[in-house]
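Forum > Structural Biology > Help requests

Title: Can anyone predict the 3D structure of Translocation protein SEC62?

Hi all, first post here. I have the sequence for Translocation protein SEC62 but no way to get a structure on my laptop. I'd be grateful if someone could post the structure tokens.
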Amino acid sequence: MDRQKTAPPQVRNVVNFLRNKAQMKTRTGILGGQRVEYFKGNAAIKAVLSPEYAKLKNVPPVTNEEEADRMLHSFLPYAFFLRVDRGEAPPAGKDGPAPRPLQVVQMQMFEKDMHYVWLYEGMQLYQKLAGLGLVVALLSLVMFPLWPYFLRRGVYYLSLGVLALFGLLMVIAVIRLIFWLITIIVLPPGIWIFPNLFADVGVIESFIPLWAWDVPPEKKKIKRAGKKKTKKAAAEPAAEAETATATAADEPNESSQVAQDPQDYTDIN
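Reply #1:
Sure, ran it for you. Structure tokens for Translocation protein SEC62 below:
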């Protein structure tokens, strides 16, 4: 848009921060038949008051919520984002709730409880470079027969190395499984070779330690003990309630017996 091109560098830096780096919570809506993203004013105010914004250079300083409100209100004439009203939510479909319809409001102002639609797509440089790299990679694969001989030879040996590494990992996995099956019978609870081989750790940590006993984790025991404690704690109030009701049921009988005693004495007299 033409108005966005006339924005000062400081305004553009703040908008780029909000659009690409602030990680504001956004939702999807429908504006003019197209899907768009919109946010709440409070999210933008929190973003410009965050420590990440304070580290930016060549941006207006913001120290409190009032300054943030005034600064964001001054961005509205550049049409990076505009205030909108949300319509009623349409019925949810199979893929979840449908996006709400949005309508631009004539009276433009910035407040934390209002909603604003993004009309700025952000920095397109990274997206263009990523798209260009993808096109180059696809063309390179398609034109593989036209590669020089030494490149094709290098890719061939590289693929052999990857296949050999994958095969070595499969052999190690089979050997460690067979060894565990033997040791679980001879030396229970069994021994694992390279116990961290398939764990979510680094490459070097996957082969450390060399072996370890197949001991179940202690967290399960702690959870079971916690469940037993909760069951006991839940059973104790129930038992106390039962005893309380039993004593309450016995008290009327005793009072009735006491009430009958004077009548017995009068009958005897």
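The first strand starts at residue 26 and ends at 31. The beta strands are 26-31, 34-40, 81-86, 100-104, 115-118, 191-193, 211-213.
Shout if anything looks off.
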